[in-house]
């Protein structure tokens, strides 16, 4: 038997529960139900929210859905898909604005990964960033230098180290994403890393790490090199 939201006790309805207890006390299904507003046929907005969450398995997976995938789901049309995508994008933008690595002291590859994952982890193209550091490993800034298929014929060391000289950096960290989600380095990634390390040694600007960003994990050339040395 399907129970409609208006048939629930007043304080169990998503809107009323939010008003009485606060938004932080709503479940994922209830938050989604508010965004969806309505259900379909004999299904309530809460039922539709439950079906949507079951389909994607997790909240991070929900954020990866495209407009086409959403409107293809039963009960979710143009309006609901646009509302969901807009709310998810606002969430990503707030996360980006609240976090800034500039002037922070770099302590781990994990720190770089956590900063860039929401920015490029879900991109459909490869984005190549360089983080510039001073002698104390404090971050001076970062710059997006390349977009597209990443290999050392496209990513020219001149552009990377020109910016390093401009901001008086003593070291750099490179990072880029793999749209496939597989963070293991390709042959081109390895060749590029070796090339940049060689150029950096000549110019006196150390390349500390090259990090490959995936949707849910990362690969650090530095961390893997350390692990190999320990073995």
List the helices and strands and how they pair.
Elements: H1 14-21, H2 28-36, H3 45-56, H4 59-62, H5 67-71, H6 78-98, H7 109-120, E1 127-133, E2 139-147, H8 157-166, E3 171-177, H9 187-203, E4 206-213, E5 218-220, H10 221-230
Parallel strand pairs: 3-4
Antiparallel strand pairs: 1-2, 1-3, 4-5
Helix content: 40-55%
Quaternary assembly: single chain
Total DSSP helices: 10
Secondary-structure element pattern, one letter each: HHHHHHHEEHEHEEH
The SS-based structural class is: alpha+beta
Gross morphology is elongated
Largest beta-sheet details: 5 strands, mixed
The averaged pLDDT comes out at: 84
Q: How many E strands? A: 5
Strand content: 5-15%
Strand order of the largest sheet: 2-1-3-4-5
Number of domains: 2
Describe the structure.
By secondary structure, the protein is an alpha+beta fold. Helix content is 47%, strand content 15%. A hairpin with a 5-residue loop joins strand 1 (127-133) and strand 2 (139-147). Helix 2 crosses helix 3. The N and C termini lie far apart (60 Å).
Core attributes:
DNA polymerase, domain 1, Cytidine Deaminase, domain 2, 10 helices, single chain, 231 residues, 15% strand, 5-stranded mixed sheet, alpha+beta
């Amino acid at each position: 038997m399907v129970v409609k939201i208006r048939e629930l006790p007043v304080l169990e309805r998503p809107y009323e529960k939010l008003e009485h207890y606060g938004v932080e006390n709503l479940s994922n299904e209830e938050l989604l139900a508010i965004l969806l507003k309505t259900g379909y046929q004999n299904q309530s907005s809460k039922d539709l929210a439950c079906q949507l969450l079951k389909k994607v398995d997790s909240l991070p997976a929900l954020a990866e859905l495209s407009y086409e995938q959403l409107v293809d789901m039963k009960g979710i049309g143009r309006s609901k898909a646009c509302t969901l995508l807009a709310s998810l994008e606002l969430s990503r933008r707030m996360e980006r604005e609240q976090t800034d690595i500039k002037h922070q002291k770099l302590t781990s590859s994990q720190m770089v990964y956590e900063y860039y994952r929401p920015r490029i982890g879900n991109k459909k193209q490869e984005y190549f960033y360089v983080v510039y550091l001073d002698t104390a490993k404090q971050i001076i800034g970062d710059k997006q230098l390349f977009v597209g298929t990443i290999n050392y014929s496209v990513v020219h060391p001149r552009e990377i180290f020109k910016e390093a000289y401009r901001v008086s950096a003593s070291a750099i960290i490179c990072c880029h994403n793999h749209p496939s989600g597989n963070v293991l380095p390709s042959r081109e990634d390895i060749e590029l890393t070796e090339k940049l390390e060689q150029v950096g040694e000549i110019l006196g600007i150390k390349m500390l790490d090259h990090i490959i960003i995936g949707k849910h994990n990362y690969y650090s050339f530095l961390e893997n090199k350390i692990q190999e040395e320990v073995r």
